[in-house]
Write a structure and sequence with these properties.
By secondary structure, the chain is of the alpha+beta class. The protein folds into six domains: 4-62, Helix Hairpins, CATH 1.10.287; 84-315, DNA ligase/mRNA capping enzyme (D-amino Acid Aminotransferase, Chain A, domain 1), CATH 3.30.470; 320-395, OB fold (Dihydrolipoamide Acetyltransferase, E2P) (Beta Barrel), CATH 2.40.50.140; 434-506, 5' to 3' exonuclease, C-terminal subdomain (DNA polymerase, domain 1), CATH 1.10.150; 509-580, 5' to 3' exonuclease, C-terminal subdomain (DNA polymerase, domain 1), CATH 1.10.150.20; 602-670, Rossmann fold, CATH 3.40.50. It is built from 24 helices and 21 strands. Strands 12, 13, 14, 15, 16 and 17 form a six-stranded antiparallel beta sheet that branches. It has a five-stranded mixed beta sheet with strand order 2-11-10-3-9. A four-stranded antiparallel beta sheet has the order 5-4-7-8. Bound molecules: 2-(butylsulfanyl)adenosine (IVH). 2-(butylsulfanyl)adenosine binds at residues 80-82, 116, 118-119, 123, 139, 176, 228-229, 289, 307-308, 311, 313.
C-alpha cells in the first residue's frame, strides 16, 4: 500500500504538472473539479502530516494566512537601475560611449544589442539552490531587500522546482512581477460588485500585493512574472541571449517579445514596432530595454554606482490624445451599480480608434470637473478602456454647464440611490430592471458559479427577450421545445445547453451559493460561508451574530445575507432550485479520508500556529470528527492556544476549568 508520504509526493508532482500545463501552455488534461479534489486531498494530508509537506508543494500557490514579517536580506549582486532615454540622440550617444570604452580596451568586435520590453511591475531577485526556489527578494534599496518568498511562491508561472540536468548548484534569476491587465480589470470589477474602492493601476496593485501580510491574500491577486536576467558563477555562457534561452529551457517564463539586433537600425525597428503592438500584451510596458549582448563586452563596460553602462532604457512617451466629450451614457450592471461612460468624438490613440472612456462614478466626474463639449485628454493606461486624464480648460465654451448626474435608472426609470460611503449610484429595482435580471443570470452561469457551458450572454439575452427565462430557476425548466424557439438554435446546440444545465446540478455548494448573487458575497466569502454553515438551511437560519463569526464577514455582508433570505421571492426561488436538484450542502468527505479520532470533542482556536494556518487547523479538527466553536463555555472540551492567543479566552478557559492545550499537544491527540 502507498504510504502517506508517497501519496503527498505523487499529488505534488501531479498537481505541479497540471498547473504547468494550464498556466504555461493553456491546456487542461483534467477538469477543474478533479483538480480541486486532488488539491483538497493534498491540503488535508499536509495539514495532518506537516512534516511531509514539500518545499515546492502546489499548496504554496494558495498561500497561507499566517502573517509575514519580512526579514531584510543582502543582495549578492546589487540590483541596479537603468538610465532612461527619450530620444534618438541619446541612444546614439549610448552607442558612441560603448564603442569608445570598448576600443580603449582593445575590443573591436561589433556590438550586438538584445532588446526587451520594459515591463512595468516590481523587480524581484529569485535564488535557486539545487533546483529549488529558496528565496525571493525585493529590490529594496538595491543593496538589500525584503524576503518575500512565501508571497512570490503563489505566482503560478514561477517554477518552484526545476527539472534539468545542466542546473548550476546555485544561481539567481531576475525578473518583473506584474499584474496582468485582464486580472486587474477582473479584480476591479469584483471590487465594484462588492461595493469597494477600485485599485488605481496594475503596477501599484502588484507592488502592494507583493508586500501583503498574508500570502493567501497574495494568491488571490493572481500575479505573474517575466524573467529577464540570469546571474551566477560558472554559467558557461557568453551572451545574454544564451542566458535567456537557458531560462526558457529551464521552464521560466520569458516574454517572447525579445529580439537580438545587429545594429541600432534594428533596435529602432524594434522600438517602432512595439510602440503600438505593446498595447495588446497582457502586461503594461513603458519602454524598451537595450542590452549589450556579449557578456565579455558587458564586463568591460561595467557599471556606475547606479546603473550598468551596457544597458539603457528607452521610454515611450505617454500616449495622449485630445478629443471632445460628446455625451455620457450610463450602464447598469448586475448589482444595479451605475457606471458613467464618456462618449467621445472618435480619435486615434495608441493604434486604435477610441470612442469611449470609462468615468467610473460620479466622484470621478466631479474630480475631473469635466463638462459636456469639453476638449479632454485621453490616455491609455493600465486599463483596457482608456481613461480621461484631464480637461483643456482654455478650450471650454462659455456656455458649458457642470454635468448633472442622472437621478433615475436609464433602464427602468427607478430613482437611483447612493449609500453612505459608496462611490457608486445604484438602481434598487433588482427584481425587474432588465440588465440586473439578465446580469444575475449571467453571474449564475459563469465558470466560478454554476459553470453552465454552452450558454452565454447572447443566449441569455434572447431567452430573456422571449420571456423564457426571467430568473435562474427558469433555466431548469427549459426544454428542447422551448430552446427550439431561439433563432439559429439547432438540435446540437439545444442538446449542449440542456447537458450544460444538467451538469450544473453537480456543482459544489459553495459555487451554487456564490451563483445566487447575494450582494457583497464574492466567491471567497461564499466558500467561507459554505464551510462554516455546511448547508443552505443553516445559513438561512443564521443570526447576525453567527454570521459575524465567519472570517471576512462584516456587518455589511451579514446584513445583506439576512436581507436576501428574508425576501419572499428569493425563498420561492431557492425552493425551485432545491427541487431542481442543485447542491445545497457540502459534499461528504470521501470515506478514505474520514477519521473519527476527535469525535464528539469541541474546540476553540485562538492565536496563530507554527505548522498550519487557523483554517487548516479547523479543517483538521473537522476532518477528524471534532467541532470548532467560537466562544469558550463550561461545556467546551479544549482551547487550542497558539502564539498571541486572546487573553480573555485564556482567562475564561482557566476560570471554567477548560483544558488549554498547545499545538504540539493537539498534534499528539491526532495520533489517537
Ligand atoms: S534588466 C541593471 N530588463 O526596470 C538593471 N529590467 O530601471 C537590469 N525592468 O529594476 C534590469 N523590464 O525592475 C531589465 N526587460 C527588462 C526589464 C527591466 C523592466 C525594470 C526592472 C529594473 C528597472 C530598471
Amino acid at each position: 500500500m502507498q504510504s502517506v508520504q508517497q501519496r503527498i509526493q505523487e499529488l505534488t508532482d501531479k498537481l505541479n504538472y497540471y498547473n504547468d500545463l494550464y498556466y504555461k501552455k493553456h491546456q487542461s488534461e483534467i477538469s477543474d473539479y478533479e483538480f480541486d479534489q486532488l488539491l483538497k486531498e493534498l491540503e488535508q494530508l499536509e495539514a495532518q502530516y506537516p512534516a511531509y509537506k514539500l518545499p515546492h508543494s502546489p499548496t504554496q500557490r494558495v498561500g497561507s494566512d499566517l502573517d509575514n514579517d519580512f526579514p531584510t536580506v543582502a543582495h549578492q549582486y546589487p540590483m541596479l537601475s537603468l538610465t532612461n532615454t527619450y530620444t534618438a540622440e541619446e541612444i546614439q550617444d549610448f552607442e558612441t560611449r560603448i564603442q569608445k570604452l570598448l576600443a580603449e580596451n582593445d575590443v573591436n568586435e561589433p556590438v550586438e544589442y538584445f532588446c526587451e520590453l520594459k515591463f512595468d511591475g516590481v523587480s524581484i531577485s529569485l535564488i535557486y539552490e539545487n533546483g529549488y526556489l529558496v528565496q525571493a527578494i525585493t529590490r529594496g534599496d538595491g543593496t538589500q531587500g525584503d524576503d518575500v518568498t512565501a508571497n512570490v511562491k503563489t505566482i503560478q508561472s514561477l517554477p518552484l522546482k526545476l527539472i534539468a540536468n545542466d542546473l548550476p548548484a546555485r544561481f539567481e534569476v531576475r525578473g518583473e512581477i506584474f499584474m496582468p491587465v485582464h486580472i486587474f480589470e477582473e479584480l476591479n470589477k469584483q471590487l465594484e460588485e462588492e461595493g469597494k474602492e477600485r485599485y488605481a493601476n496594475p503596477r501599484n496593485t502588484a507592488s502592494g500585493s507583493i508586500k501583503l501580510k498574508k500570502s493567501a491574500e497574495v494568491a488571490k491577486r493572481r500575479l505573474d512574472c517575466y524573467v529577464y536576467a540570469l546571474l551566477g558563477e560558472n554559467l558557461n555562457i557568453n551572451t545574454h541571449s544564451e542566458a535567456i534561452h537557458l531560462l526558457e529551457k529551464w521552464n521560466f517564463q520569458v516574454s517572447p517579445t525579445y529580439r537580438l539586433c545587429k545594429n541600432l537600425e534594428e533596435v529602432w525597428q524594434y522600438i517602432h514596432f512595439w510602440e503600438t503592438a505593446r498595447h495588446n500584451l497582457p502586461v503594461e510596458t513603458d519602454g524598451v530595454v537595450i542590452k549589450v549582448n556579449s557578456l565579455k563586452q558587458q564586463t568591460i563596460l561595467g557599471a556606475t554606482a547606479k546603473s550598468p553602462r551596457w544597458a539603457i532604457a528607452y521610454k515611450y512617451k505617454a500616449e495622449v490624445a485630445q478629443t471632445i466629450l460628446q455625451g455620457i451614457t450610463y450602464q447598469v450592471g448586475r448589482t444595479g451599480a451605475v457606471t458613467p461612460v464618456a462618449e467621445l468624438q472618435p480619435v486615434l490613440l495608441a493604434g486604435t480608434i477610441i470612442k469611449r472612456a470609462s468615468l467610473h462614478n460620479a466622484n470621478e466626474i466631479e474630480r475631473l470637473g469635466v463638462r459636456l463639449g469639453d476638449v479632454v485628454l485621453v490616455e491609455k493606461g493600465g486599463e483596457i478602456i482608456p481613461k480621461i486624464t484631464g480637461v483643456v480648460l482654455e478650450k471650454r465654451s462659455a456656455e458649458s454647464q457642470p454635468i448633472q448626474y442622472i437621478t433615475h435608472c436609464p433602464e427602468c426609470n427607478t430613482p437611483l440611490i447612493r449609500k453612505e460611503g459608496e462611490a457608486q449610484h445604484y438602481c434598487p429595482n433588482e427584481k425587474t430592471c432588465p440588465p440586473q435580471v439578465k446580469g444575475k443570470i449571467e453571474h449564475f452561469i459563469q465558470r466560478k458559479a454554476l459553470n453552465i457551458e454552452h450558454l452565454g450572454g447572447e443566449t441569455i439575452e434572447k431567452l430573456y427577450d422571449l420571456n423564457l427565462v426571467r430568473n435562474v430557476a427558469d433555466l431548469y425548466d427549459l426544454t428542447a421545445d422551448k430552446l427550439a424557439l431561439l433563432p439559429k438554435f439547432k438540435a446540437k446546440s439545444i442538446q449542449n445547453v440542456l447537458q450544460g444545465i444538467e451538469n450544473s446540478k453537480k456543482v459544489p455548494f459553495e459555487q451554487v451559493l456564490f451563483g445566487l448573487g447575494i450582494r457583497y458575497v464574492g466567491a471567497t466569502t461564499a466558500q467561507k460561508l459554505a464551510k462554516h454553515f455546511q448547508n443552505i438551511d443553516n445559513l438561512q437560519q443564521a443570526s447576525l451574530e453567527s454570521l459575524l463569526q465567519v472570517e471576512e464577514v462584516g456587518e455589511r455582508i451579514a446584513q445583506s445575507i439576512i436581507n436576501y433570505f428574508q425576501d419572499e421571492d428569493n425563498k420561492a426561488l431557492l425552493q425551485r432550485l432545491k427541487a431542481a436538484g442543485l447542491q445545497f450542502a457540502l459534499a461528504e468527505q470521501p470515506f478514505s479520508l474520514k477519521n473519527q479520532t476527535l469525535s464528539g470533542k469541541t474546540f476553540v482556536i485562538s492565536g496563530t500556529f507554527e505548522t498550519m494556518s487557523r483554517e487548516e487547523l479547523q479543517n483538521t479538527i473537522e476532518k477528524h470528527g471534532g467541532k470548532v466553536l467560537s466562544s469558550v463555555s463550561a461545556k467546551l472540551h479544549y482551547l487550542i492556544a497558539g502564539k498571541e492567543a486572546g487573553p480573555s479566552k485564556l482567562e475564561k478557559a482557566q476560570r471554567l476549568g477548560v483544558r488549554i492545550i498547545n499545538e504540539q499537544a493537539f498534534l499528539e491527540m491526532l495520533k489517537g
